[in-house]
Amino acid sequence: MNCPFCNSSKTDVINSRKTSDGDGVWRRRKCLKCCEVYTTTEYFSHDSLFVVKRNLVRKKFVYEKLFASIFNAVIGGKIRDQGDDAARAKRLTGEIIGEIIKLRSKYVATKEIVAFAYKVLEKENHFFATRYAMYSEFRAKVVFGNKK
Ligand SMILES: [Zn+2]
């Protein structure tokens, strides 16, 4: 990327490490033209991932939608200390996306996402997983099947 100060494309990476959530790469860059130092973070782009809905319509994957569903499962109605919960939900969302990416497909079905989310949440905390599944009839069906 170009220097945000002078727009020069000639920059050097002077330091780099993983971001604290472990999902991205943090880089300290120095512009070779104006010598300003700035930080960039690099994350995997979900732009090329599509979700196949139940009605077979394909929609772009939206990180925020998945995150919100996981966050709701994690907080379960609590209204305090949401910073920690948000960080936890972010990490779990990252794990779920990791599972989706391992499919190595441009398309993922909604029910596959639900199954991954349930698996990841169950590993973290049984109550998160149950809450997540019970939140919608469709999810409950995916997770528990049609037995009633
Ligand atoms: Zn510059």
Please give a structural write-up.
The protein is α+β, with helices and mostly antiparallel strands. The protein has two domains: 11-43; 46-144, no CATH class. It is built from five helices and six strands. It has helices at 63-75, 82-102, 110-124, 126-134, 137-144, and strands at residues 11-18, 25-31, 37-42, 50-52, 58-60, 107-109. The strands form two sheets. It has a three-stranded antiparallel sheet, with no helix packed on it. Helix 1 packs across helix 4 (126-134), helix 3 (110-124) packs antiparallel against helix 4 and helix 3 (110-124) packs across helix 5. It is elongated, with a radius of gyration of 19 Å. The N and C termini lie far apart (55 Å). It binds zinc ion. Zinc ion is lined by residues 3, 5-6, 8, 31, 33-34, 36.
